[in-house]
Sequence to fold (1094 residues):
Amino acid sequence: MDEQAGALLRELMSTDNETREKAEAQFDNIPPQQKLLFLLSCYSLPGQTDDQRLLSMILLRRLITSEFEKFYPVLPPDHQQQLKEHLLNSIQGEITPQVRNRICECAAELARKLADEEFNLPWPELPDRLLQWASNPNEAWRHAALHIFADFPGVFGPSNQPSMNLVKDMLHASLQAQDSMRVRVEAANAISSFLKSGVMNTPEKQAMFGDMIPLMVKLLADQKGQDDDNTVLEALTEICENCPKIVRPHLVQLLDVTLAYLQDDNTLESRQALCLEVVITLCESAPAMMRKLGQRHIDALLPNILKMMAAIEEDPSWDTNDNADQDEFESDSPSAMGESSLDRLAIALGGKQLLPSVMAVLAPLLNSANWMERHAALMAISAMGEGCKKQMMPMLDQIVGGVLNFLGDSHPRVRFAAINCLGQMANDFSPTFEKKFHATVLPRLCEILADNSHPRVQAHAGAALVNFFEECPKKIMQQYLNMIAPPLASILQNKMSELVTRGVKRVLEQVLVTTSALADSCSTDFIPYYDSFVPSIKYIIENANSTKFELLRGKAIECISLIGSAVGKERFASDASGVMDLLLQSQVTNNLSEDSQILSYMIYGWMRLCKILGKDFEKYLPYVMPSVMKTAALDPQTTVVDEDEVPPEANDEEWTYVPCDDHKSFGIRTVGLEEKATAFEMLLCYAKELKEGFGPYVAEVLKVTLPTLKFYFHEGVRISAAGCVPELLSCAKVNNMNVLEMWQQAAPQILSALEREHDMEVMPELVDCLAQCVNVVGPGGLNEGLVKEMMDNVLKFLQQHFERDQERHERRNDEDYDEDVEDQLQQEGEEDSYLLTRIEELIRQLCKALGSTMIPFLDEVVPLFGRLIQPDRPITDIQWAVCFYDDITECAGEQAALRYKDVFIHKLVDYIVHPAANIRQAASYGVGVIAKFGGEQLAPFLTKSLPLLEDIINRADSRSNANVVATENAISAVAKIIMHRPSAVPNINETISAYARWLPITEDAEEIAPCFELVCALMEQNNPALLGANNENLPHIMKCMAEVFGCKSLDKDTPVGQRCVALLKAIQANQELFQACLAQLTPTQQKGLQYALS
Fold:
């Protein structure tokens, strides 16, 4: 067997592919137990080379990682013990460091597999041996002990005080081992692994090891001149990311050392990059701490970053490079690294302290004779916009004026940078930038776009215009459309000619994107220019069929579909079918794969065409659905590898690797993920737009959608899938399919996904998915167990809401708290509030479906909403707590209103005059709901509410933009009290007269109907309090009706609209009265009246 084992191992290392692949297949077919013996035998064979023994141990670790359960439990206990002893003895006896490290990793992996969740390890010899080795003079053994500990930090068992002391003593001694730099470096690596492991799962435990940081910093300083090993820097970076607070007492010392390396021209580029990463990571993980304690070092660092950004080599082919997808710089080049670092710094630290420091460095660079420095300065301005927006906004006039000067710079790459700066600012400072600078920026960019002398600059001007168009108000775009569109059409023709004669396409691709953005921004105003563009674009789609032109064809598809969406069905109808046929022909001709560049363009194109064509799109479904379903069902390749096995090309455009526990990295092939999200957006569009026509596909789409709710590789995919589910159920309902059966499949999957979801962007969408599904299926789809599970989730989310709020409170008391931290906390609070709105909507839909039978399920969550409504809570908490009571009263009725009145109603009445308009609105709406649904027992609270409602209605600023919705809800509340609880109104005639004066309301569409329902009822009764003496109020009432019709706030075909029309016609019968009323109407009101009476 030994000879056979040696032969197979040699074949596994063969450079001949066929030999090696044959050996791999043979090895894979060996049963796990025999594979264990085979590998141990290969290691021990006499005469084996180091490489062969190394491979045997690499394969042994993989065996333990992937097949442990298949071989270890079935080994006899004595054989298990022999395996452990063999590994420990081999570590002690191995003389080759690389091989010894691999054996250590095998031992660590075996220990990890044997330990339970509390890190209890049934292998007492291992921690004992590690402690012996760690204190032994033998350098190799000390290194081995640390290497195993770094690989599996749980080796010493649960994190109790004795084990912590043992670990601390071992690491402390190892870091100070003056006889061995190798041991010190491995100790630093071990500390990093230990601090980020599950053993050290609290800040308090991590803080116990804070005194290791100065020893690690000293070690880093001692490595001067030993740039080949960056383990210590990598370890410090991980500590700065995972537990930056323990670095705080030693921050200045750490920054001094890293800055010294950065400022030393003799430091290798790789070490400089890691030193920079330490600083940037600290800024991202503890920005307030760095703003408070690290400002001096940041100021000193900035010139180095700008120097990196200016490290650009002259490239004669730069301007003629025709590949639009190729990055300007390599991502790991100094210039790209510098730009990325400045961007990250700005986002992390904000602009209050950073911007003045950067501007001081930029001033001389902008005036430099060296084009590279001018380029770096302009790119720096681009990079800072997102993070320094608040501070740069007041300086925009000065900044933009300065940047515009560089559009005429002598060097094309500086002009490129200036254009880049304008395009980025158009995005970062929208819409202020577009409103203030359209007159100076647009003509200059259009001028450059028309200049053929520098294609790269020309294309970039088109890209900057895209950013401008996307954010520019339509009224401004209308002023420039005739200045932009005809020259753009001419450039399109010229660039098509260049494609034919010279084969260049970069500018043409950009012109298509710019045209797309222009049409999208201008909507139907683009119709006069339709014929100048569409024939050329159709020609490109039809003829650009080679792989070389795949991206060009994709952008042409995007362009024509966006033009169609902009101009509308009527104008696009003549071309729509032809365009759709071209797309289908392109799909068949090119046999698109999931990583095809054109696929996402096709899918979005189909989606837009579906929205344009509506029902007419149904005939294309059999042709487009196979590709869409294939994309939606994409299952990306994944892998888990050891850190040292991550390929050099990791994190390129195709694969992304993320470090995870235990020195492993998780890799995912990212190609196709965006397209997968797009496919679900498209399926949602089809279900929504086509309804009956989409029926044949509902079951198949649902089958693919439900598992995707747990597609954790891409939050956009999960969000799109969550949006699909209720639309699919609605589509099934319209098609008379078995909706309840589908819901029985969907509900457990949604709830399971919700249980596992932690992303604050996705959670609200999953809750909303549940709410909308409940709305579709109604009471027939809700049993006690399902409702309880939903409400258990609601309870959990509410408890987490309070926990996150408490965390924010603690962060406000942190020693490094500042206004930038407060901005971040406010943003997190807004995310929490949005989740609260979705929770409240779910409760509303459940109450709407179940009515008063929902009450037992509410009992558990009411106390939490009772906490939210207290005056010391944030405004949004109070608002949604009030809305909760509004909704359960409206949907679960009088029984719910009375059961929980003591928790809510006193606060609700008080909040009618709350300083915050959104709380006043919710409280006023609640009063109206109580009037309609709350029963007679709550009439005294309505009586108490009336003077408060009148107070906010009669305030001088009640109709301001900030207050109008709250005011209209107050007016509507009075109307509902008069209609449904007149007994609560002490002087009803006075209240009706006042009510007539308060009209009209036009902003809150939901409240217009009840307000005019009361008007109609009182007019039909000839109520003198409403009409006034001798009908003197009639012109005002007619004016109010005309107003709501003129503003399109009320549809004349609704029940209330029909009653208003009937009353207006009755007034019209008295021509003298009618003409007197008509004379008082504004043009808008006259149009409204004409609409009503037509």
